[in-house]
Hints:
The protein has 158 residues and is α+β, with helices and mostly antiparallel strands. The protein is built from five helices and five strands. Helix 2 packs across helix 5.
Amino acid sequence: MAMSNLVEITVNVNGEDRRVEVDHRWTLLRVLRDSLGLTGAKRGCDRGECGACTVLLDGNPVYACSMLALQVGARAVRTIESLGVVGDLNPLQTAFLAEDGGQCGYCTPGFVMSATALLKANVNPSEDEIKEALVGNLCRCNAYGRIIESVKRAASDR
Ligand code: FES
Ligand code: FES
C-alpha cells in the first residue's frame, strides 16, 4: 500500500482559518492556487525571481513560490482576493485600472500586493521609495512607468 505524505495543517488565509492537506514539499503558492483555488497569486518563474506570486505574510511581501506551506505556521497570509472584487475594487486596484498599470496583467497581483504593503507603511511614498518597494517584482511587458503612476495615484487619492 502506498504511504501518504500528506499532513493536515491550518493556514490563516485572508482572515479565515483553512484546513488543508499538504505534502511537505509543496510550496505556499501551490497550496493557495491548487488546494484553495486562490489563483490571484501567479506562477511566473516559480523560483523566486519575478514576484508574480507575491502575497503578504503578517503584512510583509513574500514570494509564495519560495516558501513551503509548512513554514507558514501561525502567520496570516493575505492574497489579492482579499482586497477587492470586480465591481468593488479597492483604491489601489482602481488606481491601477485608471492609470493603465497593467498590460497582460500577469504581474499585476504581485505588484499590487507589494504596493499594498508599501502604502500601509508609508502613506506618501516618494518615487524612489515606490521603486524600492517594487524592486522584487518584474514586468515582462515593461509597464513600469504606468505601474509607478498607479501607486502614486493611489497614494494621492487617499
Ligand atoms: S513565481 Fe514566485 S518569484 Fe516568480
Ligand atoms: S503587465 Fe504583463 S507582465 Fe506586467
